[in-house]
Amino acid sequence: MTQIPGGFAALGLHPNVLAATTAVGYEEPSPIQEQAIPVILAGHDMIGQAQTGTGKTAAFALPILSKIDPSKREPQALILAPTRELALQVATAFETYSKQMPGLSVVAVYGGAPMGPQLAAIRKGAQVIVATPGRLVDHLSRNGQVLSTIRFLVLDEADEMLKLGFMDDLEVIFEAMPAERQSVLFSATLPASIRGIAEKHLRTPKHIKIANKTQTVEAIQQAFLMVHADQKVSAVARLLEVEDFDALIAFVRTKQATLDLAAALEIKGYKVAALNGDIAQNQRERVIDSLKDGRLDIVVATDVAARGLDVPRITHVLNVDMPYDPESYVHRIGRTGRAGREGRALLLVTPRERRMLQSVERVTGQKITEIRLPDAKQVLDARIKKLTNSLAPLVADAEGSHGELLDRLIADIGCSPRALAAALLRKATNGQALTLAAVEREQPLVPTASAPRERSERSSTDSTDRRPPRAPVAVTEGRARCRTALGTRDGIAAKNLLGAILNEGGLTREAIGRIQIREAFSLVELPEEGLDRLLAKLKDTRVAGKALKLRRYRED
Predict the structure, then answer these.
(1) Are 246 and 205 found together in one domain?
(2) Residues 363 and 399 in one domain
(3) What does 308-356 look like in DSSP terms, one character per residue?
(4) Mapping DSSP to helix (H, G, I), strand (E, B) and coil, where does residue 59 land?
(5) Distance between CA atoms of 294 and 291, rounded to whole angstroms?
């Protein structure tokens, strides 16, 4: 692919890294990227004064990846972050930007997760370590040579690290690294303590300061919904039930996610298509034309596939997956609210993405309103309203055109007009739940923004994990015990199994009995009546990305 001059291509990045920026849809560098990338590529130490949300992760990740040697299976770059959430976010960014670099691997090192996998990744030669100071010091206490090959150091949000009391840990980490290294420090503010670190550990650093400029999107009404990652599809389906949209674009991160979500919505009856990097240009043009003229109402797209998409009838943008940075969020939602029209932007946020939500609010200069998942009554009212709107235009001349047929059907079937109308409605609505009780059974479980931060996956599992194995208790009358091979080692908690079975099985909470989580398997009590049909309905269900595969448990 020929690169046009200017933009990222003019900054001197490695071709493979440059290809990754194109793949994620980056077109023009932000001010911090434009100034910092050449300085870091030139090998200078640097102090970057910039707020979260200015694109600073790419400002250090892209040049460092350009200088790393993937053929050397040893740690070469260390990025220190103040919190687990930021460490995960930065590690994800490095993985994204290094997708065109065979042999390069990234490990996130943070507390609240088992040390074993982290140690194994470092031993295998992960070239990039993204770590919180406390957990990294734990690793150094076991192996003081972990950082002996580091050539590049980044302190991200250094002021936050000091506020959290990591000064002593930082000194331990500095001592464990080679003196001959390139060091980069990013901080929103430069108090005396940060200047002291710079004077002691950086060599004649270049200083770059970027003003925190907000990007306003006044014409767009923004809202977010807290949701667990494995509940996104069901949450999207429920949101779309009550949102009054003309055309909508839904953003996800991966090509596979475009196909999966589009397929799920198509089953629900929506006119939807996927748009990703694998789709040929002529097919892409057909999809956009169909969205423009109303043959499609929803497009599920990745950022790169949606570049240049300008369809005036788009009233809603739905961010199913959080974008990699706030600028991408602004770019996404700018596809609605055009030409003076109002638009609506919805964002799904998992509990671990609260920090990015705050960054988005800071960059846009606007508070994003939290909404709740529509309740059963709202969904039922919306379904009946849509049914009413679809039938109302047909009523005017229906008696004249179909009156005789109606009389004949009533006579042939031997039923009342009301019974026939009800039967036709059942057929027209194709089994859709249209009673309050039935809609309530479809309700996905989602967290709230005020919910406490998620603990590690092991500590969030059912309390039975901490007890020694024992024989299962007697099964509740009227229920059967079923087994899945998923357990705590798969990151499964009782709430995950409960949510999946409620959503996919169409059961009420009361119908499900005890859920017992073990390390290598889990047991769930389900209604004995109709169990085979229920298990067949659940056969394709996935929990935390893995097949549920529930089966009747027989104790022999």
Answers:
(1) no
(2) no
(3) T---TTEEEEEESS--SSHHHHHHHHTTSS-TT--EEEEEEE-GGGHHH
(4) helix
(5) 5
Do 419 and 522 share a domain, yes or no? no
Are both 351 and 337 inside the same structural domain?
Answer: yes
Structure confidence at residue 485 (pLDDT): 87
- Each residue of 471-518: pLDDT tens digit? 445 666 778 889 998 888 777 888 778 878 887 787 777 788 888 888
* Cα dihedral across residues 65, 70, 72, 73: positive or negative: positive
Give the Cα separation of 320 and 493 in Å (integer).
Answer: 23
Q: Are strands 551-552 and 206-209 parallel, antiparallel or unpaired?
A: unpaired
Of the three residues 189, 209, 229, the one that is the final residue of a domain is 209
Cα–Cα distance for residue pair 204/144, rounded to 1 Å: 28
Residues 149 and 143: their CA atoms lie apart, in Å, by 13
Nearest one of 456, 432, 430 to 380, comparing CA atoms? 432
Q: Any bridge partners for residue 167, and if so which?
A: none
Sheet holding 272-275, edge to edge: 272-275, 298-301, 247-251, 314-319, 343-349, 220-226, 369-370
Helices 31-41 and 56-67 pack at an angle, to 10 degrees, of 20
Q: Is residue 454 part of a domain?
A: no
State the Cα–Cα distance between residues 544 and 84, nearest whole angstrom.
Answer: 20
How far apart CA 103 and CA 367 sit, in angstroms, is: 42
CA-atom Rg of the chain in angstroms:
27
Q: Give the pLDDT of residue 447.
A: 46
| Helix H or strand E segment including 297 | none
Are both 112 and 177 inside the same structural domain?
yes
pLDDT tens-digit map of 204-259: 999 998 875 555 566 789 999 999 888 899 899 889 988 889 999 999 988 889 99
Q: Is the pTM of this model over 0.85?
A: no
**Number of structural domains found in the chain:** 4
236 and 363 fall within a common domain: yes
Do 362 and 485 belong together in one domain?
no
Instruction: Pick the closest to residue 188 from 205, 209, 202 (CA basis).
Output: 209
Which 3 state secondary structure label does DSSP give 295?
coil
- Are the C-beta atoms of residues 62 and 115 closer than 8 Å to each other? no
Same domain membership, residue 391 and residue 268: no
Domain final residue, candidates 174, 209, 244:
209
Q: How far apart, in whole angstroms, are the C-alpha atoms of residue 304 and residue 444?
A: 30
In a domain, 55, yes or no: yes
Establish if 448 belongs to a structural domain: no
The maximal CA–CA distance of the chain, rounded, in angstroms, is 95
1 is a domain residue? no
The rounded distance, in Å, linking the Cα atoms of 386 and 515 is: 38
Which sign does the torsion angle of CA 437, 439, 441, 446 carry?
A: negative
pLDDT of residue 34: 92
3-state SS class at 2? coil
